[in-house]
Design goal:
11 strands, six-stranded antiparallel β-sheet, Immunoglobulin-like, single chain, mainly beta
């Protein structure tokens, strides 16, 4: 299920020509939630090459990396057990490398990494289109340490969309900042129930 436009999360690291010229950026990230977990959508467009995805080189592959902190503390510079890094690739697994990949990764320099829960890997699917792809993932609440929207309705959150052909897009800070290791650099998301 592709989430509607209202779930779109803007990328603030590249507020340049796509917005100024009235064009859509080459990627869109949408995020929704309920008590069962998080729903992630990624749309990548304007490609002339197939995505480059390798299970053995997940950090170098095309796709999206997201970071979550279920305690949303801007005071910590090293990840705790409530911090997660998930990577989703549109392809790269299976006999013909046509199946999507979902992995929970260890965060660099973490004091303590979140345990890989029994609910991981999440449900994930992707579909190639003529000039890009869509990826949809559901991350179950039981796969996210400390996920409790009633007690902790604010999450630390960051994402980076990577593509060998098109470059990278980050939610806020891009290259040059240690957003892959420092939760104080992540944005906050309020889990609003409407």
């Amino acid at each position: 299920m592709l989430l509607p436009d209202q779930f779109n999360i803007p990328c603030f690291d590249q507020l340049d020509e796509p917005f100024l010229e009235g064009k859509k950026p080459w990627s869109e990230v949408r995020l929704g939630w309920n008590s069962d977990g998080l729903i992630l959508n990624l749309v990548v467009r304007n490609k002339s090459q197939d995505p480059w995805c390798r299970e053995s080189r997940i950090e170098d592959s095309d796709g999206i990396a997201i970071w979550l902190n279920t305690r949303c503390s801007s005071l910590i510079h090293r990840a705790s057990r409530f911090c997660h890094e998930f990577r989703f690739l549109p392809f790269g697994e299976g006999p013909q490398m046509k199946q999507p990949i979902a992995r929970q990764c260890e965060i660099k320099r973490a004091k303590e990494n979140a345990k890989v829960a029994s609910g991981f890997p999440p449900q994930v699917r992707s579909r190639a289109s003529g000039k890009g792809y869509t990826l949809q993932a559901f991350i179950p609440a039981k796969a996210i340490s400390g996920f409790d929207p009633e007690e902790h309705p604010r999450l630390g959150f960051h994402f980076v969309v990577s593509d060998r052909e098109l470059g990278s897009r980050a939610m806020t800070l891009g290259h040059g900042f240690p957003t892959d290791a420092d939760p104080s650099l992540w944005s906050g998301l309020d889990l609003v129930d409407d």
